[in-house]
Amino acid sequence: MKENILILADMEGIIGIYDMSDKDKCKSYMETEIKLLLDELISNDEFEIYFCDIHDNGETTSELYSLYPTVNFIKCYWNIDFKIKYDYAMLTGLHAKSGIGVLAHSFRDEIKNVFLGERIVGEIEVFINLLAYYKIPTIFVSADEQAMNEIPSYVVSTNISKSSLDKEKVKNNLTKKYKAYVKNLRYGLSHRDRAKYKYNSDSVQIELQDNNLLQYLEDSGIYTKSNMIYINDNVKIMDNLLKVANLMNTYYKNEYVKLLKKLREKFRNCDFNNIKSKKMKRILSIPLQNLSLDDLKIVNAELEKIFY
To answer: Are residues 186 and 89 part of one domain?
Structure first.
């Protein structure tokens, strides 16, 4: 009988990705790493594979669906069916907590710190702890070097995908990194009998960068305590984060729309040809109701670059 294995895959810790400016290139790197992982698991012929893309909307790896018809693909953490008994879990493409490492953050850029009890933790520990609640031991984690000390010692095998100290030669020569990845993956699989899990039931507190945003969330029904978002039952952290993320998007959209209205008033009598920012030219010409959240974020980023 095959064992069930659950894989959580993020993008920022993928081998080869040092910035997110080229989306197609990042997507290609992620597909390459996931193929290595899936090919190795399938070649063992011992596992029923459940693969969850936890990056963004969960669709970055959707082009792999047709290549791996025997794999159960899942979009986003919230769609994982924990009624299924998973024997093991793996994490790949993970990154360090906010403030350290390559492309480091803790779920959202607006979040300064996540506390599990009194300790600051990153996404890796949050996910491993959630898996432990469901009695699922994690046997392999691939992440950047600065995230290594966030991985509990009982995880069977780890892999360093990259480092913030990597030089251009290392960045461009990925062969050794892929070989190390497969080697460490195989070690985790061959020693999975050592797998353990340890659930920490401490509450979660989330510290934000912006107190105005915290006040908005509190006014919108999010429970706060000591100037932080407070989640007593940490198993519900992802559900809470989904609500928080949606509220944050609404908050920023409202704020940016206000800002954009002021800008349009300012530029009403201005010759658009004299505005040097092409992004702002485009955004200022779009009807407000047609603006995306990404467009509105650009407004904030581009303000200091406007000359007319």
So the answer is: yes
